[in-house]
Design a protein that fits this description.
The protein is α/β, with parallel strands linked by helices and 314 residues long. It folds into two domains: 157 residues, P-loop containing nucleotide triphosphate hydrolases (Rossmann fold), CATH 3.40.50; 66 residues, Ribosomal protein S6/Translation elongation factor EF1B (Alpha-Beta Plaits, 2-Layer Sandwich), CATH 3.30.70.60. The chain is built from ten helices and 14 strands. The strands form three sheets. Strands 6-7-8-3-9-10 form a six-stranded mixed sheet, sandwiched between helices. The protein has a four-stranded antiparallel sheet with strand order 2-1-4-5, with helices on one face. Strands 12-13-11-14 form a four-stranded antiparallel sheet. A hairpin with a 2-residue loop joins strand 1 and strand 2. Helix 2 crosses helix 3 and helix 2 packs parallel to helix 4. The two termini are 43 Å apart.
């Protein structure tokens, strides 16, 4: 079931089109990656979903209902630009933000103590926000964002500025929240996080959705029939055995172990490759190489840029 459905969203600012006929569907209880280069329209779409601004045309549905102000209490939003009050004490501020989302002061305080203990933040309660480092402030705002247990959690670059330990801590919490039924809309430029966390993605560029679907399917669709083969044996004999039906793209030898990347040609299959090389070498490992989301991101954006340039010159 879709918990968020944005249909044919248009949004302009003066003569600039931020979103042009954008549609996405976010499955319930999943992690959905909203991707794109800077200025693509991601933040505008997030602000529309979060009911901060309205589209010029098109509609957004939340749980099958047309999006309205009543749904904002079911959304947690962590913007890329953090917004804590610098002079306010951390504990007091978190309680205040929780009350804005409908929690009582008593319930907010009780829940906060659990989170502060989990994140080892107990000593920060009476500190002012300006006394905390950027990373510490981000942990505080993450807690404030998830405290009211929203159905949908919108995270815009949530790992920016974190050291590896705290980034891992937040990732684990994101996965735990998903497993407990929260739907997460994740906007990030970190493609390794997309591969690690996201079930589905939409890639926006130039105000249009240029790629969407499950991460697994997208990587399969963009594969290039290349395989990593590790073997012991003579590298020259291996190379000759490939002959014209396969292309040796990379080769590297460490002692007796050879590591190679081979591309299949002429509709050849992995079994054809194995049957060709097995008489000559001892295969230690054999795996298909799928393109990374980073490679796919760059390729699709460059294609869009190229088509835009061609269109302008015609």
């Amino acid at each position: 079931m879709e918990i968020i459905s944005a249909q044919n969203i248009f949004k302009q600012f003066g003569n600039f089109t931020a979103l042009g006929d954008v549609s996405i569907s976010v499955p319930e209880k999943s992690i959905f990656g909203l991707l794109g280069p800077n200025g693509a329209g991601k933040t505008t779409l997030i602000r529309i979903i979060n009911h901060i601004t309205a589209p010029d045309s098109g509609q957004v549905f939340f749980g099958g209902e047309k999006l309205s102000p009543k749904h904002t209490e079911q959304i947690g939003y962590l913007p890329e630009e953090r917004g804590l009050y610098k002079k306010m004490e951390v504990g007091e501020q978190c309680v205040y933000l929780a009350q804005l989302k409908g929690l009582s002061k008593r319930d907010a305080t009780k829940k906060l103590k659990v989170w502060f203990e989990k994140f080892e933040m107990q000593e920060w309660w009476k500190k002012k926000t300006e006394e905390l480092s950027k990373g510490m402030q981000q942990k505080v705002q993450f807690v404030a964002t998830v405290l009211h247990e929203p159905k949908v959690l919108i995270l815009d670059e949530p790992f920016s500025g974190f050291d590896p330990i705290n980034a891992s801590l937040i990732k684990n919490e994101v996965l735990r929240l998903k497993n407990n039924g929260t739907t997460i809309l994740l906007s990030t430029h970190n493609m390794s996080s997309v591969e690690e966390l996201c079930d589905n993605i939409a890639l926006i560029n130039k105000a249009k959705v240029i790629l969407h679907g499950s991460v697994r399917d997208i990587r399969q669709q963009h594969k290039a029939n290349t395989y990593e083969v590790e073997f012991t044996g003579d590298l020259m004999t291996f190379t000759k055995a490939l002959f014209k039906d396969f292309a040796l793209l990379e080769k590297h030898q460490e002692g007796v172990l050879c590591k190679t990347t081979v591309k299949l040609l002429y509709d050849k299959t992995p079994n054809d490759l194995l049957s060709t090389i097995l008489p000559y070498v001892q295969v230690q490992s054999f795996r298909e190489i799928l393109p990374s989301m980073n490679d796919i991101f760059i390729s699709k954006v460059q294609q869009t840029e190229m088509h835009t340039t061609v269109g302008l010159t015609e």
